[in-house]
Amino acid sequence: MNNPDQNWRWGTPEGSQEFDRLMDARLSFREKIQWVEETETLHERLAKKPTDALIKIIEIRSV
Fold it and tell me: Distance between CA 21 and CA 54 in Å, rounded?
């Protein structure tokens, strides 16, 4: 899936809602479930070892 171009408005409450609607229309149900599972995993990692979880995120994003 291609992500839409970044926009500064997404940092505002209205822009965030617009982005959510846009992404909701683009994601399949399977992708939505995968996103929820990844978010839950991240939440669990942050609850256990916040520093290690953040380092892992930075490593993933820098690739």
Answer: 27
